[in-house]
Amino acid sequence: MSAEPLIDLTVDYHLDLLATGVVLLDANLHIRALNLSAENLLEVSASRALGSALEELLDESNEWYPLLQQALSDNYPMVRRAIPLTTRTGQERTVDITLSPISSSAEQRCLLVELNMVDRLQAISRDESEWQAQATLKEIMKGVAHEVKNPLGGIRGAAQLLAGELAEVNLHEYTDIIISEVDRLRTLVDRMLGPRERLESEATNIHEVTEHVRQLIEAEAKGQLSIERDYDPSLPDFMADGGQLTQAVLNLVRNAWQACGDGGLITLRTRVLRQFTVGGNRHKLVCALQVSDDGPGVPEDLLPRLFLPMVTGNAQGTGLGLSIAQRIANQHGGLIQVQSVPGETRFTMLLPMEI
Predict the structure, then answer these.
(1) How far does CA 229 lie from the centroid of its chain?
(2) pTM above the 0.90 mark?
(3) On the CB side of 140, how many CA atoms lie within 13 Å of its CA?
(4) Rounded-to-integer distance, Cα 189 and Cα 141, Å
(5) β-strand pairing of 226-230 with 265-278
(6) If you average pLDDT over residues 263-287, what whole number do you get?
(7) Which of 106, 212, 237, 302 has its CA at a distance of 20 to 30 angstroms from the CA of residue 147?
(8) Which percentage of the chain shows pLDDT scores above 70?
(9) How many angstroms separate the CA atoms of 79 and 71, rounded?
(10) How far, in Å, CA of 95 to CA of 44, rounded?
(11) If you classify domain 13-118 with CATH, what class do you get?
(12) End-to-end C-alpha distance for the chain, whole angstroms
């Protein structure tokens, strides 16, 4: 009599292409296999997770542990919607869970767990809307810039001609004011249009960018600001315009400094995300650069408009720094997200790393 074949517990490499997190548990709820999406969701590497009890990787308060036991004991699949999930690091997510018991014998019963992160799907939808809004805004701004800059050139020329006709030198003060204000408006329009269209891409190390920005800000702050670093050393170099990325990160850090003020704390954090969707496109690797501050937070009514030009919560600000940073991220195929509560505001720049 031939022995029953064992269940193949190896996750096929095609599962790593799925946005759905897939975890295979044995009868004791120990992890036997998981795909890349599950690694991202659980915030753990496969090398650490394999063989570990699920409760070692998730907070004990998760209410769906009884569901796992029930699915195994009843040997019957089940689906649950919008279940809260908290990782050991305290990250809270909302997931749809599909539980499928599988076995070749009573002794080798396992549980296939599929996790769809509901809040991530909502975030993807918001990202796509944000991406489209930025593209529309870009075209509008081009049209506005054209309509504004043409008459500004005429006004400046007329002021120069008028200055040449004025016999009284003291009246030149007024034409000088006209010319300087026209120049200021032209500069403002150019800044509203954001960075140059053409990227000068080269192999870029994101930590060289963040360190350069850190040194600039620390020199300006003269010891009045604390900047912590939490870098992922595994992040590879990727093709990007280092100069423009430096400008974008500098804008984010300056914004954070304005928010938390002298004596505040800013944290620069980098992570790599695998099989991650940005702006409706799925990428094998994405660089996630976070700039966090411990300031009072962004007013809730300002959050949806935060990346629009001329929108700012700072009376001394121009409202262009975040808009320009978002445009730079968009030109690199990425985008910037923001989350804010009193005591922690976090801007996350997502940049595809197409190696």
Answers:
(1) 17
(2) no
(3) 8
(4) 9
(5) parallel
(6) 86
(7) 302
(8) 76
(9) 10
(10) 17
(11) alpha beta
(12) 52
Q: For residues 230 and 290, what is the distance between their CA atoms, to the nearest angstrom?
A: 10
Q: Is the dihedral of CA 215, 217, 219, 223 positive or negative?
A: negative
The CA-based diameter of the chain, rounded to the nearest angstrom, is 116
CA-angle at 82, arms to 76 and 87, nearest 5°: 95
Rounded Cα distance, 339 and 337, in Å: 7
CATH superfamily placement of domain 198-355 = Histidine kinase-like ATPase, C-terminal domain (3.30.565.10)
Question: Which tokens sit at 27?
Answer: 């009868």
What integer is the mean pLDDT of 233-249? 90
When comparing pLDDT for 208 and 63, which is higher? 208
Q: CA 248 → CA 206, 251, 305, 320, 332, distances in Å?
A: 12, 5, 18, 11, 11
Note whether 153 and 127 are within 8 A (CB).
no
Per-residue pLDDT band at 10 (split at 50, 70, 90) = very low
Report in angstroms the alpha-carbon separations of 12 from 17, 18, 51, 72, 272. 10, 11, 18, 23, 22
* Statement: residue 325 has pLDDT above 60: yes
pLDDT of residue 53: 87
Tokens found for residue 302 = 């300002």
Radius of gyration of the chain (CA): 27
Kindly state the DSSP code that residue 105 receives in the 8-state scheme. Answer: S
- Please write the tens of the pLDDT for every residue from 105-134: 556 788 899 888 765 545 555 555 565 666
| Element (DSSP H or E) covering residue 212 | helix 206-221
Average pLDDT over residues 204-213: 94
What contacts 227, CB < 8 A, 6 or more positions away?
A: 214, 217, 218, 253, 265, 266, 267, 268
Q: What is the pLDDT of residues 77-113, one digit of tens each?
A: 888 887 887 777 677 777 888 898 887 555 678 889 9
Kindly report the average pLDDT of the chain as a whole number. 80
Domains of the chain, residue spans:
13-118, 198-355
